[in-house]
Write a structure and sequence with these properties.
Layout: E1 4-9, E2 36-37, E3 46-52, H1 55-62, E4 70-77, H2 82-90, E5 93-94, E6 97-98, E7 103-107, E8 127-134, H3 141-148, E9 153-161, E10 164-165, E11 174-176, H4 197-200, H5 204-216
């Protein structure tokens, strides 16, 4: 049976199970065998990471072509105005092309766990929090987007991937998802079997169906 794991990745953890340099990986938190990350989350980012033992489910979650929305809480340096938020929402020109339209809004500072190590903040420069929802997943995209409009990211926490949310998980904790919650994400395989080729020439029903199909087109 397919398994899907929701994990709150702490800051500084690699989204892989092995590392030749001895850095902290998923193996330090998750002991389940045969599951792999569905998508990535940078080492210096925190929050929701999905893992599964299903190839089709992994592809469905990670592949940007399926436009499974991902929502982030982003702390940026300085306070962006409406024009900046509109620019982020409409799309930003990056080295690898223009980003897709996104949903962006200012939010109050969320109640989060202390980051270890803490974010370096300068008393003379204010910060602000944004909620940013994307339907694509380029490398370090959120950080590059906010930097492109002049507001560097200080802290980045992913709080949702499609219907799955981070709520209820402390850093380093994980839980398994009930299959009913992700059954609709992977398209069902066709239940009707195609007519074997060696039988098509002998089937009156098949010839009749294809004749009508040709007329319709």
């Amino acid at each position: 049976m397919t398994r899907l794991i929701l994990f709150n990745k702490p800051y500084g953890v690699l989204t892989q199970f092995r590392d030749n340099e001895g850095r902290v990986t998923l193996a330090d938190y998750i002991s389940i065998k045969g599951v792999y990350p569905a998508g990535r989350l940078d080492r210096d980012s925190e929050g929701l990471l999905l893992l599964t033992d299903s190839g089709p489910l992994q592809h469905r979650i990670a592949d940007p072509r399926h436009k499974l929305a991902k929502t982030y809480w982003v702390q940026v340096e300085r306070e962006p105005g409406k024009e900046v938020l509109q620019q982020l929402a409409m799309g930003v020109n990056l080295k690898d092309g223009r980003t897709r339209p996104a949903k962006v809004e200012r939010i109050a500072e969320p109640e989060l766990w202390p980051r270890v190590p803490p974010v370096r903040e300068r008393k003379s420069i204010p910060t602000a929090w944004l909620q940013l929802t994307l339907t694509e997943g380029r490398n370090r995209q959120v950080r590059r987007m906010t930097a492109a409009v002049g507001y560097p990211t200080l802290r980045l926490v992913r709080v949702a991937i499609g219907p799955f949310v981070l709520e209820g998980l402390a850093p380093g904790e994980w839980r398994e998802v009930d299959p009913e919650q992700y059954r609709g994400i992977v398209p069902r395989k066709p239940t009707q079997r195609p007519v074997p080729r060696h039988r098509r020439g002998d089937s009156h029903e098949y010839r009749k169906a294809t004749r009508h199909r040709r007329r319709d087109h």
